[in-house]
Design a protein that fits this description.
Length: 337
């Protein structure tokens, strides 16, 4: 709950409004797991709270660790469903990649999560629980909404979570520590851009409309040119960043003509293009390029004045890398049970 929601909750139980601030402090700063541990709240009020609410922290049920130190956590989310979160340590940074939905509706050709379909929205508690219940919660320096699901398709709950993460009463994080990824759902994106100052990453993958629509069905409803026109209305010249995610597919989107069109499409927009190696998904007729191919395309973009980096792949051996998250097997097993 946000602070206004906590105030509503405590006043509904006949408690003074200031109890809400105490609750927020226990929940988001001290990160207690039981109402009984909230010692500056009277015993009678703790009993009222415990009878009406639960803290809601649920530990992961499984963890897999990669040879590179990446960890993939499995979280239960109601009625036998599961989601995955990925912890990525890297020198002085510790990033958690969180999920926003159970599965995904977007059905991008190259993404394993889309193959399992959509099973439901995550509540704000489900999303925050990933951050608060990983063993490394106090080590986290960054959170990226790049896990399972499309954040802008769950924008109401996304914005509540971002409020808790960045508000003084909550985690009090700088918005610069948070990046939200999207395929470009314009209605949700409009709200996110207007109501948050967190960083934005747009899944691009091709600058050509017909090609992108074959890779990403969302292109037909919300063309990337429309998405970029919307982004241009907001200020990304200061501390807030806009980046474009671009998975490089061999012989598909890695040519000089793609570099030329990307230059035209992104002209004048202060942004970063993140090149991502394709991680093979069963049944998908696409191939990635080797490191030399990644560097060659990076050079094409850099020579055209586009700020470009190659994202280092992490956790591929445990299916934790970009585009590989899926809980289809766990969900199927729980349905059978």
């Amino acid at each position: 709950m946000t602070l206004p929601q906590l105030k509503e909750a405590v006043t509904s139980l006949g408690m003074p409004a200031f109890t809400a601030k105490q609750l927020a402090d226990w929940l988001y700063k001290k990160k207690v797991r039981s109402v009984a541990d909230m010692h500056n709240i009277s015993k009678s009020n703790r009993e009222k709270l415990a009878s009406a609410f639960e803290v809601g922290c649920v530990p992961p049920t499984d963890v897999k660790e990669s040879v590179d130190g990446t960890k993939k956590y499995l979280f239960p989310v109601g009625s036998g469903k599961y989601i995955e979160s990925v912890y990525i340590p890297d020198k002085d940074r510790a990033t958690l990649c969180v999920s926003s939905q159970i599965g995904c509706k977007m059905n991008c050709l190259f993404c394993n999560t889309g193959k399992q379909g959509f099973s439901g929205q995550l509540s704000p508690a489900d999303i925050l629980n990933q951050i608060q219940s990983v063993p490394e919660t106090d080590k986290l320096t960054n959170v990226v909404f790049m896990g399972m699901g499309e954040p802008m398709d769950n924008v109401d709950n996304l914005l509540l979570v971002l409020d808790v993460l960045t508000a003084d009463y909550g985690y009090a994080w700088s918005p610069k520590r948070i990046t939200v990824s999207s395929v470009g759902l314009v209605p949700g994106l409009k709200r996110f851009l207007a109501e948050s100052t967190c960083h934005l990453a747009i899944s691009l993958h091709s600058p050509f409309a017909d090609e992108r629509s074959r890779l990403m069905p969302v292109q037909k409803a919300y063309p990337v040119a429309e998405v970029i026109d919307l982004i241009r209305k907001f200020d990304f010249s200061g501390q807030r960043r806009i980046s474009f995610e671009y998975i490089v597919f061999k012989g598909v989107n890695d040519t000089e003509k793609h570099a030329d069109e990307l230059k035209r499409l992104l002209r004048g927009l202060p942004c970063l293009v993140n090149l991502i190696r394709f991680h093979k998904v069963p049944g998908v007729p696409l191939d990635g390029v080797n490191q030399n191919g990644m560097i060659a395309f990076e050079t094409m973009l850099t020579n055209r004045g586009i700020n470009t980096t190659i994202r280092h792949s992490r956790g591929e051996d445990i299916w934790a890398a970009c585009g590989l998250l899926s809980t289809m097997k766990q969900n199927q097993q729980s349905d059978i049970l």
